[in-house]
Amino acid sequence: MNVIDEIFKKTSSCSEYSQSYAAYLSRLMSALDFQLVQKISNILDEARQKGETVFCIGNGGSAATASHLATDLGWGTRVEGVARSKAISLTDNVPYLTAVANDSGYENSFVEQMRGLFQQGDILVAISASGNSENVLRAIRYANENKGVSIGLVGFDGGKMKQQCRFCLHVETALGEYGPVEDVHHSICHIVTTYLKLKRHND
After folding, report:
1. Does one domain contain both 22 and 86?
2. How many CA atoms does the CB half-sphere of 98 hold within 13 Å?
3. What is the model's pLDDT at position 202?
4. 8 Å CB contact between 191 and 20
5. Which of 30, 58, 116, 121 could form a disulfide with 66 if both were Cys (CB 3.0 to 4.6 A apart)?
6. Cα(103)–Cα(90) distance, integer angstroms
């Protein structure tokens, strides 16, 4: 039984459940590798300074996080008079995504987009609760093989991504705890992007 199921069985109302859920999220957040969070923020800021592009990918809820991260990097971190971050979510062009999936298979839905856009030094931020999505794994391998930097946000046991990403931030939970993993991933993205905006204001 995962922690979320245990929380539900031990509570008798949505109010109690929400308090216990919030406490669990707090424990997951506190267990993060904050030095790695710092490293990721440095990589993303250096990419902005060098004019390199950050590509964000994921499926389902992680696709929404990828889209949100790209938006926050490109628009949310802007500071007047300072070069902006270049960020693209490969989940957002639905015609392109479905054309590739239809013609070449869903497992190639991200990597085929990267072939026309990704350049040496660019960054891939791959987001997956399971760490085992084939279309995400193929994109990671492509980034690694083409002298890019692969950053992973994973959950559960880390999956294959934990070993394949150059930098991998792991939110360790029981299998199937999508909600808490995605909540923490989203929070990490907000932490990093708000920090980068504030840092640029004060540099």
Report:
1. no
2. 3
3. 86
4. no
5. 58
6. 17
Structure tokens at 27: 């424990």
pLDDT tens readout for residues 131-173: 999 999 999 999 999 999 999 999 999 999 999 999 999 999 9
**Other Cβ atoms closer than 10 A to 42:** 12
What is the spatial distance between Cα 97 and Cα 110, in angstroms, rounded to a whole number? 7
* Owning domain of residue 17: 1-31
Domain count along the chain? 2
42 with 24, same domain: the answer is no
- Residues in the chain where the model's pLDDT stays below 50: none
If one counts every other C-beta atom within 10 angstroms of the C-beta of residue 198, the result is 12
Looking at the fold, whether 69 and 163 belong to one and the same domain comes out as yes
- Residue 61 and residue 47 share a domain: yes
Q: Could you tell me if 102 and 157 lie in one domain?
A: yes
Distance CA 150, CA 128 (A): 13
* DSSP state letter for 24: H
Q: Where are the alpha helices (DSSP H) in the chain?
A: 3-10, 14-30, 34-50, 61-71, 94-104, 111-114, 134-145, 161-164, 178-202
Distance CA 177, CA 129 (A): 8
Helix (H) or strand (E) holding 125: strand 123-128
Q: What is the CATH number of the domain that holds 86?
A: 3.40.50.10490
